[in-house]
Amino acid sequence: MARAASAVEEGLAAAHMETNACNGSKVAEVEEGGHGGRVNVRHAPRADPPRRLKRSARWADQQGMRRALAIGLLAAVAMTGSAVAATPLDGTFRAQKGKVQAGSELSFKVSGGGTKVGQLRARLLETCQGEGSSTMTTITSNATWTVRGGKFAARKKEVRASTTYYTTFEGEFTSRSRVSGSIRQIAYRAGKRCDTYKVPFTARRG
């Protein structure tokens, strides 16, 4: 009887030796036999981790990542769309009053299905070396600028009547009939350098 009681106590003690099921612990169950006080100790199978909870959490994380990625792609598309310039219509574009340097004029022609800019004409203030003030000068250019992606930008060199001209003309068509940009011309004549400096402008077709 003493041995049977001792076995029961040992079985009960074993039954309480358990740790967290998620860490791989075992749970013991004690059964007291009906003959001779024999005690059977049966170990229950290892407890499985909460798989459903893990799967739900993983699914929620994946859905959140997908939403964030979708929002990021939409934002990128929106930004890209707003940054794309327009292909201009053929025709003459002119700077309106107050849309270029005070008292100045500017015009040019778009051709080739919105791929070429030429026939540049402008009246701008010009400052020459050795002169204390600026004077109004007429700028003309026979050069052609190529439009790519609704934008054009280049520095053109021309020589006319012993004068060398460097005309920098750039712009971006914000719509098919509107453009914003800048113009600058440097002229070398009789050993003197004259410069209009960079002048911003806004022009529209018609």
The residue fraction in helices comes out at: 10-25%
- Mean of the pLDDT scores? 77
Number of strands: 12
Structural class: alpha+beta
Question: Main beta sheet, described?
Answer: 6 strands, antiparallel, barrel
How many domains, as an integer? 3
Query: Ranges with pLDDT <50 over ≥5 residues?
Result: 1-9, 11-37, 77-82
Order of helices and strands: HEEHEEEEEEEEEE
Fraction of residues in β-strands = 35-45%
- Give the N-to-C terminal Cα separation: 116 Å
Global geometry: elongated
Order of the strands making up the biggest sheet: 3-4-5-11-10-12
Number of separate helices: 2
Rg from Cα? 42 Å
Question: How does this model look, in words?
Answer:
The structure is a single chain. This protein has three domains: 1-49, no CATH class; 57-83; 91-205. The chain is 23% helix and 45% strand. It contains two helices and twelve strands. The chain has a six-stranded antiparallel barrel. The chain has a two-stranded antiparallel sheet with strand order 1-2. It is elongated, with a radius of gyration of 42 Å. The termini are far apart. Mean pLDDT is 77; it is low at 1-9, 11-37 and 77-82.
